[in-house]
Amino acid sequence: GAVVSQHPSWVICKSGTSVKIECRSLDFQATTMFWYRQFPKQSLMLMATSNEGSKATYEQGVEKDKFLINHASLTLSTLTVTSAHPEDSSFYICSARSLLAAYNEQFFGPGTRLTVL
Amino acid sequence: QKEVEQDPGPLSVPEGAIVSLNCTYSNSAFQYFMWYRQYSRKGPELLMYTYSSGNKEDGRFTAQVDKSSKYISLFIRDSQPSDSATYLCAMSGDQTGANNLFFGTGTRLTVIP
After folding, report:
1. ∠ at Cα B99 (A46, B58), nearest 5°?
2. pLDDT tens digits, residue range A13-36?
3. Most A CBs within 10 Å, among B101, B105, B109, to test the A interface
4. What is the C-alpha to C-alpha distance for residues A26 and A57, in angstroms, rounded to an integer?
5. What are phi and psi of B39, to 5 degrees?
6. Residue B97 in this model has a pLDDT that exceeds 50
7. Measured between beta carbons, which residues in chain A are less than 8 angstroms from residue B36?
8. What is the pLDDT of residue B95?
9. Which in A47, B2, B58, B97 has the greatest CB count within 10 A?
């Protein structure tokens, strides 16, 4: 149980295009989903927290107009990188917290590697 | 000062060795402590979870929390090549609230056959 999927697993795009990444909790309902970015050999950096049906809360320094987050249901959140540039190339990981979680455990997706040319 | 400090390594040990991974933290409000394992190009997976101070053992893994020193450890006994991964400590201050997880930078471990 507690499986989180991400799609696509990797994507290459041209500078200026937009890319959408999906995060799904497959066998549980997620009250909250989190989006992280991870650069090589660095730790996870929280970008934003999203709750189903409400606006995402962005961390300081993360542009909300550039990284659009939609949490349409208890099992799906999407991150859209708008007008992507090479500096947006990174490993994007989502996580989900279960409605039934006894503590603040987050289940992570496998990540999406974005390369912007 | 970062909320959570973790030596990034890399750490290389021979197969069968005991591995000790550590994190320190500054926020005394942290109550929940987790260790995640992350293989290359994969998302993190939860290894161990502990609440407050004390020890917890699961197979070859033992997690220790010393809240008085603000110091947590993960021990791996009889290390195997399959343990080669990056280990991230994480912690939070609230059980079910909106508080986020605070991660260490991760320690890259290689177990040499």
Report:
1. 85
2. 999 999 999 999 998 888 889 999
3. B101
4. 23
5. -80, 160
6. no
7. 108
8. 55
9. A47
Contact B32 A103 (CB under 8 A): yes
Give pLDDT, residue B8.
80
Which tokens belong to A92?
A: 């994007």
Mean pLDDT on A26-48: 88
Residue B34 CA to residue B56 CA, distance in Å, equals 11
User: CB–CB of B88/B108 below 8 Å?
Assistant: no
What 3 state SS string does B1-56 have? CCCEEECCCCEEEECCCCEEEEEEECCCCCCEEEEEEECCCCCCEEEEEEECCEEE
Q: Quick one: tokens of B80?
A: 């195997």
- Residue with the larger pLDDT of the pair B44 and A53: B44
Show the tokens assigned to B102.
């605070």
Q: Which two tokens stand for residue A57?
A: 């809360």
pLDDT given at position A30: 87
Question: What's the pLDDT at B94?
Answer: 63
